[in-house]
Amino acid sequence: MKIPLFLCSGFLILLSAAPGFAGDPVVVGPAKPNVLFIAIDDMNDWVGFLGGHPQAKTPNMDKLAKRGVCFTNAHCIAPACSPCRLGLMYGVEPFHSGFYPFYNHSKIPQEVLGKYTSLSRHFRNNGYNAFGAGKIFHGSKSMNGDWDDYHSKNNAKLEYAPQAGYQQGKSQKMAFCPTTNKFEDHPDHQFASYGIDILKKQHDKPFFLAVGLVKPHLAFVCPQQFFDMHAGPIQKPKIRHRDLEDVPWVGRSMAKLSDDLRYRTDESWEQVRRAYLACISWADYNIGRVLDELEDSPHADNTIVVLWSDHGYHQGEKRSFRKFSLWEESTRVPFIIYDPRPGKMKAGNCTEAVSLINIYKTLGEMAGIESPAYVDGESLVPQLREPSTPIELPAITTWGRGNYTVRDDKWRYTRYFDGGEELYNHSSDPQEWNNLAADLTHQARIKEMATFLPKNEAPQVVTGRSLWNVIDADQPKKLKTFKNQTWPQMKEKLRPAIEKQ
Ligand SMILES: [Ca+2]
Ligand SMILES: [Ca+2]
Predict the structure, then answer these.
(1) What residue spans define the domains of the chain?
(2) What distance in angstroms lies between residue 41's CA and the mean position of ligand 2's atoms?
(3) pTM
(4) Ligand 2 centroid vs 498 CA: distance in angstroms?
(5) Which pLDDT tens digit goes with each residue over 53-83?
(6) Which residues are catalytically annotated?
(7) What is the mean pLDDT of residues 114-125?
(8) Distance between CA 336 and CA 349 in Å, rounded?
(9) Gap between the Cα atoms of 69 and 339, Å rounded
């Protein structure tokens, strides 16, 4: 009889109970790798390793990107917390599941959710312990056997120092300023500490450890020290002020013009962007704490690290703030996989367009676990072995039923539910300023890219829906309201700001 003693350094070490061998460790073969799964909320490409902003300071993620395979052209499943996370964790595209808008995870009917197996549960079903902390799903911390243990508590109240930043009225959410609390009071510090505690332990089974950070999501608040790192003037992103004029109406409806107008009027854009960069550095600091612990732990040689953000963020581009759009600012995300096991990975950048939908199958293949038959996407193991390996399928991002964007290594093609289209050439127009969809010379390309649009759309799941903030095929009337009233009014309001620029 052999008793597993512990798992480390990539091998399962057994203690033989046979006479004469008692106590001798016997190495019998490679053990299943552990997984450290780092989820980030609302982080766009303003990180050192993606170069989205020249003043980004993210040394810990940069180090991971260098050691692992960094997917420099990675895109979200949907540009919103709930549908992206449901898609990623269950391995199913919104147009197959019907999870287009926001849901309270625990209120989605079992006859719908029961068709799918969450990633953490799938690993549990295959001999793993699953531990989680912070934000992995949106709207519910833990349910139905997704985890062996889950940490979500944070009781400390954060106090803001708005005189050192910017705050809209007394809004706790729309605050862009340092906190006066100690590090330990902040949720992300606690979530990282939970991960560190798990990494300090010996485990009798391989583990799937998910650490979900809630920054840089609004409010943009974090300790002063991270604001101090960004004390000087903040460089503006590249913005074309009349950029929306060649964008179809559904696209225009996605832009958060009122936020842009407010920050222009208040002259607060710089404070908003500074606070965002500070929160990104704060997230990076907490990620670094977990990665340093892993490196010093007995699990270092046998733990796969995957790091991703659920979607990107506008900081004034397309006259917009936040996410909820199908442009590059919203879709592009940090995404890194690192595998320390010999021969499993070649460090480098993969520049092919990839979707986060591929995480499910990729982790499954890396751990030798077959994914359920329904799971969408494809394994990125060939790209981990050789980052220059091409990928045939483009990345698709869905925002509402009928609104899709298709991204390949050079082009973005978007089609909205009413037939409105956009086409951008990323080789010559990385800001997506010039919509080429009406250009007759590109019609063959549009036709080809349109073949990747979903053929059969699942109807929207209605039960459990908590927020439906997109104009789509299921609420087309909202577009009429927007066209007749909101946009012209908004345009009038914006005119002085536009003309001032
Ligand atoms: Ca998010
Ligand atoms: Ca434009």
Answers:
(1) 32-410+419-500
(2) 27
(3) 0.92
(4) 14
(5) 999 999 999 999 999 999 999 999 999 999 9
(6) 81, 138
(7) 96
(8) 9
(9) 9
